[in-house]
Design a protein that fits this description.
With 91 residues, the chain is mainly α. Helices cover 75% and strands 0% of the residues. The protein starts with 9 loop residues before the first helix and ends with a helix.
């Protein structure tokens, strides 16, 4: 299987933020909602790429842009939390 076809889970792409993602998923409703959206869109893309649920190129491109936007927002939220924790913890 080609690595581009693997799901784009945040913990796989940003392992250094795994702890912040887990914490935000439990404590921040907005973050949890965005993460669910990201995972649902990622699932649709993965199914298309694996031939399970093919879709048109325009639809796929739109979903990839949506996933990227969600991932960017989630990344910034998790990074900000990590930086905030480091400052409070004296790291």
């Amino acid at each position: 299987m080609h690595s581009d076809l693997l799901p784009h889970a945040l913990n796989r792409e940003f392992p250094e933020l795994a702890e912040a993602v887990a914490r935000l998923k439990e404590t921040d409703l907005h973050f949890a909602h965005l993460l669910k959206q990201h995972d649902a869109v990622d699932d649709q893309i993965t199914k298309d790429e694996m031939g399970v649920a093919p879709m048109g190129d325009t639809t796929l491109e739109g979903l990839k842009k949506q996933r990227l936007h969600l991932k960017d927002e989630l990344y910034h939220m998790a990074s900000a939390t990590t930086k905030s924790t480091e400052i409070k913890g004296g790291k």
